Amino acid sequence: MRAPQKDPQTIEEAAAILRSGRLCAFATETVYGLGADATNSDAVLAIYETKGRPRFNPLICHCPDMAMARKIAVFNPVAQALADRFWPGPMTLVLPLATDAGLSDLVTAGLETVALRIPGHEAARNLVAAVGRPVAAPSANPSGRLSPTTAEAVRAGFGGRVPVLDGGPCEAGLESTILAVEGEAVTQLRAGALARETVEAALGIAVPTAGHDAAIAAPGMLLSHYAPNAGVRLNAESPAPGEAYLGFGGFAGDGARAALNLSPAGDLHEAARNLFSFLARLDASGAGKIAVAPIPVTGLGEAINDRLERAAAPRR
Ligand code: TXA
Ligand code: MG
């Protein structure tokens, strides 16, 4: 365990840390990312070590603009249309790796595709622009644990071993939606902060969930993921004795040992933003189990239910 790291106070200080090959966590509009220079294998290796992440799990590359994105991936017309419409924003595209992309093989885990996005958070784009190289960044949490949506949650997860550029609370609160583009076809590898319906409406085509093989290619699909310490019980209209309760809309969990409501108004965007931090707070209440209200599966509800199902899955 290394000594506590001094947090950077400016984008320039954070960029200098990243350029020197060290890790730095930073805010995006989705969740906080644990950043490393994507062209530096030692730096990328430190991401895997710090997170305790399975080695085969490839990472998302963050770019400030299309000029950098085009140097690392090949955009066909469908990919370009998605980029035009949804970047900067909470969408990750899995595209063929460009020749001479210059990325560490550890970023792609040896695949011939690369996952990349231009984040919607302005400070994140400015940070990557100041680094001048793509920044690989998974969520800034130990592997399999809740994703952090505040700088404080990053510090709690890594015990202060990673410097954090505080960019305030994350606006979306859920990871980006991952889309794979192959020719004319677009498949969703991970539900996220951009609703599938929004993508389908923009393209005028169906965007199915990728099949089982593709799910293995995107190991963010590992079943037990995003897990609190407590067990999780889904679709619970009320808490059982001793349970903490994560409410939604009219399901408020009266009588629970601890209760938080993701959105009393039943707003899925508000619920997404609160999801990880509320799970962490209920976890900290010491309850053995967190019961979760039913949440609709439309729009952002697909991604919310996806994360909750993983949190509830049997642990590895
Ligand atoms: O919102 C987000 O996407 C956050 C913020 C920090 O940007 N990042 C994030 O990264 O969630 P991470 O590393 O936790 O998720 C990466 C996901 C994994 O499920 C991984 O398997 C998938 O992207 N992935 C990366 N490269 C891939 C590839 N070439 N093919 C298929 N899936 C890929
Ligand atoms: Mg993650």
What does this protein structure show overall?
This protein has two domains: 11-203, DHBP synthase; 231-312, no CATH class. The longest helix is centred in the C-terminal third of the chain and has 17 residues, at 268-284. Residues 212-219 have low confidence and may be disordered. The protein has eleven helices and 13 strands. It is an alpha/beta fold and 316 residues long. Bound molecules: threonylcarbamoyladenylate (TXA) and magnesium ion (MG). Residues 28, 30-31, 33, 57-60, 92, 94, 108, 111, 113-115, 137-139, 175-176, 178, 189-190, 217-220 line the site of threonylcarbamoyladenylate.
Give the SSE map.
Elements: H1 11-19, E1 24-26, E2 33-37, H2 41-51, E3 60-62, H3 66-72, H4 77-86, E4 91-96, H5 105-108, E5 113-117, H6 122-131, E6 135-136, H7 151-158, E7 164-165, E8 177-182, E9 185-190, H8 196-203, H9 212-217, E10 231-233, E11 244-247, E12 259-261, H10 268-284, E13 289-292, H11 301-312
Parallel strand pairs: 1-7, 3-5, 4-8, 10-13, 11-12, 11-13
Antiparallel strand pairs: 1-2, 2-6, 3-6, 4-5, 8-9
Bound molecules: threonylcarbamoyladenylate (TXA) and magnesium ion.
Residues 28, 30-31, 33, 57-60, 92, 94, 108, 111, 113-115, 137-139, 175-176, 178, 189-190, 217-220 line the site of threonylcarbamoyladenylate.
